[in-house]
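User: What would this chain look like folded?
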Amino acid sequence: MKLAKRLVLTTTALAAVTAGTLLSATVGQAAPAQSAGAAVDAPAALKVPDGNRLTGLFSAAGVQTYTCTDGAWKLLEPAATLWAKNDRSRRAVALHSRGPVWVSTVDGSAVNAAAIATSPKTDAVPELLLQSTATRGSGVFAGVSYIQRLNTHGGVAPTTACTGTDQLSVQYSATYAFYKPAK
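Assistant: Here's the prediction, encoded as structure tokens.
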């Protein structure tokens, strides 16, 4: 049953990527994210260091998948689709998954990152400041230095005990802000 659920989620994600790629090839490049330099409201603990500029602001929706480990729910992986913050059509421009990694569905560029600061939220996964550990490609995610996960809703692991190797996906949404070194 778990394998069937994962196959459905993977198939759905691949369909979204394919549709987004075909749409972007037909329409042109993805709608630009919010203009560079726009202000992002973030807790003090999640402020990006000076010398970096905002280059992309994306809305995201997806799931946080948890697995049962020693009788408790532990994060296995996120799976989310990102779209330009002001795009009402919610055209997929990136996918977020385990790593964590973000991959552009428009140009194939990618960024891996690691959390360096956290800000807890009630009834939601925490907001995060992540620092890039690697980038790939020459597109939207090339040269990304920092990422903020902000405005989180949902995605919290159950507090109940679990057994075996059960898995559970919990819906969440967030805003992701991407930064590059200022030139």
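The beta strands are 52-69, 72-84, 94-97, 101-104, 110-121, 124-136, 146-154, 167-181. If you want, I can go into more detail on any region.
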